[in-house]
Structures are given as C-alpha cells and as structure tokens.
Amino acid sequence: MVLHIQGNSLIRGPQDVLDAITVLLGGDTYDCAEAHTLAFQIGGSLYPVDSRDFGSQKYEDTTSQCTPNLAPTDPPSSGFLYSWSIGDPFLKS
Q1: What is the three-class DSSP state of 34?
Q2: For residue 32, which of 5, 21, 54, 66 is within the disulfide window of CB 3.0 to 4.6 Å?
Q3: Strand-pair category, 11-13 with 2-4
Q4: Can you tell me the distance from the alpha carbon of 49 to that of 92, in angstroms, rounded to the nearest whole number?
Q5: The pairing of beta strand 30-31 with beta strand 62-68
Q6: How many CB atoms lie within 10 A of CB 31?
Q7: How far apart are CA 38 and CA 17, in angstroms?
Q8: Which residues, listed in sequence order, are joined to residue 48 by a DSSP beta bridge?
Q9: Cα gap 3→55, rounded to integer Å
Q10: In DSSP terms, which residues pair with 68 in a beta bridge?
Q11: Which pLDDT belongs to residue 60?
Q12: What pTM was computed for the model?
C-alpha cells in the first residue's frame, strides 16, 4: 500500500474500507458530540486522527450533526495497489 500525505481536506482511501468506517460511525451522519477514534497504523505505530479533524458539520443551521470527510480513491491501474491520501485531517492530529 502506498501512503500519500498531502494538502487535502479529505481522507481518501479504498471504497470498501471507507464504507466499513461509515458503518462503524453509524452512517453518513453522526452526532458531533459523540467521540470517535480513527487511527492509521504506519510502521507498527498507531497514529490517531481526532474526530474533529475527520468530520465536518453536516448542516449549516446546526452544529449537532457531522459527516465524515471521507472520499474514495480511484480504482488502481493494473498491477498497483489502492493508495491513501490522508492529508490535513491526519497532519492536524
């Protein structure tokens, strides 16, 4: 797996993994006040991403509902693995 860290406001990764994360969050929208843990394992160490960094306010008129800042990467070309782009949410944490 190739890991890219760049200036990006989204966490981009394989669709099936992002779908699993969304299920664990309880869906596309979740309670902002509810603490969630997301961590990436790199070189045997876990690096947590603060839930305030991987989610954003879902609706303009309320701060109670959040949506994860997740987006799928494009399917790989033949012979390549999916890559991640964890960008700003990861770097802030």
Answers
A1: coil
A2: 66
A3: unpaired
A4: 8
A5: antiparallel
A6: 12
A7: 12
A8: 39
A9: 20
A10: 55
A11: 85
A12: 0.73
The tokens describing 75, both together, are: 């399917």
**CA 72/CA 83 separation, integer angstroms:** 10
All domains of the chain in start order, with CATH: 2-92 (2.40.70.10)
Reading the block at residue 55, the tokens are 């989610």
Parallel, antiparallel, or unpaired for β 70-72 and 11-13? Answer: parallel
Whole-number Å distance between alpha carbons of 43 and 61: 41
Residue 81: phi, psi to the nearest 5? -90, 160
- Distance, CA of 80 to CA of 60 (rounded, Å): 40
pLDDT tens for the chain, residues 1 to 93:
555 555 577 888 888 889 999 998 888 888 888 878 889 888 999 999 887 788 888 888 878 898 888 888 877 666 666 678 877 777 776
| Chain position carrying tokens 């991987």 | 54
